[in-house]
Amino acid sequence: MNKRIFITVIVLTTIGLIGVIAIQFYWFHKALQLKEDQFSNQTQIILKEVVDKLFIKQSTYLSVQKPGEELDNKNVPNILSAVDTAKLRSLLEEKFRNQKMESSFEYGIFNLTTRQLIFKQHNSNPENIVTSSHRIALSNMGRSNSFVLAVYIKNEKEEIRAEMIPVLVLFLALVAGLAVLFGFVVYNLKRQKKLGDMKTDFVNNMTHELKTPISTISIATEMLIKPEVNTDANRVGRYARMIYDENNRLRLMVERVLQIAVIEKGEYNLRLRDTDVHELIHELVQKFLLTVRSRGGNMCVSLQATRYILKVDKIHFNNIISNLFDNANKYSLERPHITVKTWSDEKGFYVSVEDQGIGISAEHQKHIFRNLYRVPAKHIHNVKGFGLGLYYVKTLTQAHGGTVKVYSELEKGSRFELFFPFNYQNSTADEQENDESQPIVG
Q1: What own/partner pairs with CB < 8 Å and gap ≥ 24 does 236-241 have?
Q2: Cys bridge to 108: 30, 129, 154, 425, which one at CB 3.0-4.6 A?
Q3: How far is residue 338's CA from residue 168's CA, in Å, rounded to a whole number?
Q4: Contact residues for 351 (Cβ-Cβ < 8 A; gap 6+)
Q5: Sheet with 147-153, side-by-side order of all strands
Q6: DSSP-derived secondary structure for 149-167
Q7: Is the pLDDT of residue 65 over 50?
Q8: Quick check: 420 and 401 in contact, CB under 8 A?
Q9: What is the rounded distance in angstroms from the CA atom of residue 150 to the CA atom of residue 124?
Q10: CB–CB of 84/54 below 8 Å?
């Protein structure tokens, strides 16, 4: 996936997610409005039923002012003669209770035209009653329908919102789920893109690496075909040796690629036995010292560990240290200076390999142990590799129960520190003394 398509997908997905969230907000707002309308309609039905029952036999009711109600205007003609205030309150409480509306309320009757309060519940706020939207005309009281019964419900908004909490939780869960899903998709897209780039780089590097030995073998074979070369034993031997060396080089490259799947699946077997790791490190230093000195560099060795007999797989331990030596040499653009140190404590054995090369930025340090990962750096394009070495180092060090750490700074070099515990027990390892594991090229 190229960069333009990747960005387009991210932008479109983001727009889609924002659109879905906006729609969810819209429908939640609509649901809240609908709930408010339902509450208002339910209250109106209650008021209508109360008025109907209150005046069903109005001629039999007497004007009685009960405790808890206050007459605000003593000059209103016959208004209270038809209203039993005790029954009014009883009906309101009964209807609200039947509808499971438990909020406290205030009520009263006022003139809708003059907004003059006729009577109200004791200790109620006249302004709340007059401005309440829950009201019904007392039209069956006779000549005028300008008198209304009004109810003010305390904490009305809070009650409605409380009923909407399950919907709100579901809405927020949906939004959070969409956000997490979006993040997961973006993460995987970026990961797939990086993996694709890494595989492309690997194929390019592998192709470049294969071209040289194939070309050399082709040229040497063509020379051997020529009659004048066949008569010269020295030239035949030289070309045959060239073909043999390049063929071995090809074999090692193929083995290196095939071992990717072996390492990833963990299908390798460790043959653990007590080993003098100082001796192994010393032998490896002697081998690499020739290469390092050919570039004008040097290796400084300080083997200070007091305990250096470890139960390790000799082949894999050699490969681990060799990979670190090789990287220290490759990524030192000028004269390589490599420092090797060992030390030990009661927990285990430590070995560090330090160089003064180009270093690794903090951004890439967390990725360098991934399979096929190579730090992008244009000025070191001549450095060969497939991004397998450090992945091998970490995987096989962990297989020995150990850990690997990196300390690095750009333009100042890198230090890799390995730890191997004493007496590590690996249930999948084979501790036979006779056999050694097959090498996995890093």
Answers
A1: none
A2: 129
A3: 63
A4: 277, 281, 305, 321, 340, 341, 342, 417, 418, 420
A5: 69-71, 116-121, 105-111, 147-153, 135-137
A6: EEEEETTHHHHHHHHTHHH
A7: no
A8: yes
A9: 12
A10: yes
Q: Tokens 């509808």 map to which residue?
A: 99
What backbone torsions phi and psi does residue 183 show, to the nearest 5 degrees? -60, -40
CA distances from 88 to 79, 108, 335 (A): 14, 10, 102
Structure token digits, residue 395: 């995987």
Which residue in 341, 345, 340, 351 sits closest to 312, CA to CA? 351
pLDDT beyond 60 at 429: no
Per-residue confidence (pLDDT) for residue 247, from 0 to 100: 85
Residue that the structure tokens 């996995």 belong to: 440
Is 340:353 a contact under the CB 8 Å cutoff?
Answer: yes
Cα 152 to Cα 133: distance, rounded to the nearest angstrom: 8
Does residue 57 register a pLDDT over 60? no
Domains of the chain and CATH, by start = 3-163 (no CATH), 192-265 (1.10.287.130), 273-421 (3.30.565.10)
One-letter amino acid at 349 equals F
Cα separation, 67 vs 421, in Å, equals 88
Q: What is the DSSP letter of 123?
A: T
**Rounded-to-integer distance, Cα 109 and Cα 55, Å:** 15
Nearest to 317 by CA among 238, 404, 384, 247: 404
User: Do residues 153 and 36 touch, judged by C-beta distance below 8 A?
Assistant: no
- List all residues 6 or more positions away from 270 whose beta carbon is below 8 Å from its beta carbon: 313, 316, 399, 400, 426, 428, 429, 430, 437
How much is the pLDDT for 79? Answer: 52
CB-based burial, 247-274: b 16+ in 10 Å, e otherwise:
eebbeebeebeebbeebeeeebebbbbe
> Each residue of 236-265: pLDDT tens digit?
888 888 888 888 778 777 776 666 666 766
- Per DSSP bridges, beta strands 337-344 and 298-303 are parallel
The DSSP line for 365-418 is HTTTTSTT-----GGGTT----S-HHHHHHHHHHHTT-EEEEEEETTTEEEEEE
308 touches 347 (CB < 8 A)? no
Per the confidence metrics, is the pTM higher than 0.90?
no
Give the start-end residues of each E strand in 93-184: 105-111, 116-121, 135-137, 147-153
- The average confidence (pLDDT) of the chain is 78
pLDDT in tens, 84-112: 667 777 887 777 777 666 667 787 888 77
